[in-house]
Amino acid sequence: NEEVLSLKSHINRFRVKLTAKRDHEMVFVELSEVLYFESVDNRTFLYTSDEGMEIKYRLYELEEMLPPEDFFRISKAQIVNINRVKTLAPGFNRTLFATMTNGEQVYISRKYAVDLRRALSI
What we know:
- With 122 residues, the protein is an alpha+beta fold.
- Helices cover 25% and strands 41% of the residues.
- The chain has helices spanning 2-14, 59-65, 110-120; strands at 17-22, 25-30, 36-40, 43-47, 52-55, 71-75, 78-81, 85-90, 96-100, 105-108.
- A seven-stranded antiparallel sheet has the order 2-1-5-4-3-7-6. Strands 8-9-10 form a three-stranded antiparallel sheet.
- Strand 9 and strand 10 form a beta hairpin.
């Protein structure tokens, strides 16, 4: 039925692999392994539980490519995999802090925190 096809499509999108650069080699990273993406000094990085690697895409390109039910823009410089968020905690001035499954914390700016709260119905 339609629900099963939708679920299958979602699973297939999540199996997509991105090409990242680590030292002098190319690495294939599954979307499910990505904690978040970050833009620093006109370069974009993806972070897994273990390491960060550079990728060729800009954040706006990633926003168009990534499944919106799994990846969410949390600041001007970051996109987070909401499936890898362990906890959310309030910050100052209606901001949030997300603790990722590896224990790392990322800051969710006020502008994007409102949209995230709405998307998660909190």
